[in-house]
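Note to self: user wants both folds in one dump. Writing first protein now.
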Amino acid sequence: MKYLLSFEKVLNIIIKFVLAIQGFALLSLLGIEVFFRYVLNSALSWPGEVAGFVFVWFTLLGTAYLVGENAHIAFSLISSRVPDSVKKSLYLFTQLMILGYAYFMIFPGYRYTKMFSFAVSPAAGISMAWLYSAVPVSGVLISFYAFINMASTFFGRGE
């Protein structure tokens, strides 16, 4: 468990770094698009499309990170009203639901990525596999974090 938690810490650092780069890229791409469209009066076709790719990855990686931090949307109204003896079971049920969601991100997402990997984006010419692969990759990360959360519930964080 100790090594898994160390791996989780390193993974968190990597994901936060990637999210920061993606956030900067989004601002830059949208800034470029606005500048060319409204200042130079000559719109570019690719910044909006690339920003869409980055936004999808940003959103899904952010979701995985939030699952790892237990900062995702939760129904605290229910958990705040149940006895402490039920809270652990409710939390585990929530993590199992998250795992079920991740399953549908990983396997159908992978099939979808393979099915349309030949397609390219019209303006930027980027393989659509880059866009579609965000779903299964994030599903794997969400699964990892859900397993860590469940193991931590049973065995503690060990820190």
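First done. Writing the second protein, which came from a different request thread.
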Amino acid sequence: MLKIGDKLPAGTLQEYIEVEGEGCSVGPASFDIHQATAGKKIAVFALPGAYTPTCSAKHVPGYVDKADALKAVGVDEIWCVSVNDAFVMGAWGRELKTAGKVRMMADGSAAFTQATGLTLDLTAAGLGLRSNRYSMLVDDGVVKTLNVEAPGKFEVSDAGTMLSQLRSAG
């Protein structure tokens, strides 16, 4: 399992791009994880699935609400990672008004999630292999903090905890 001090695994994540620019056309675009994190401080949070209750009501809205505060303490970007496709993540992001605050990164085949070892098997619930709920601060591709939730919990991966950790470290 991924731990503090580890470099993020190689691979790609996808994001649904709403507006053409920076060499990206409208639609799903793939981003190399190592290139996208190089030289940046990124608050990453992962969750089991788009449109699920805790994820939609608490997890994503918390990071949207605290985006400015996180950026004020040195975070360059905020990523939400979920084992969903880029179309679903794009639609969910529009609904939750994440534009300019949280990048909705799709791990459609769960390759990144499996490489981190932070998987959650929800096959019995009809959801298949998903991501565990967690947050981490990544600095230049290296994990600096990692907050992994116990199954069914939402206590340590929230935006408030991430913000407190950043303020304590700063």
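Dump finished. Worth passing along: The mean pLDDT is 93.
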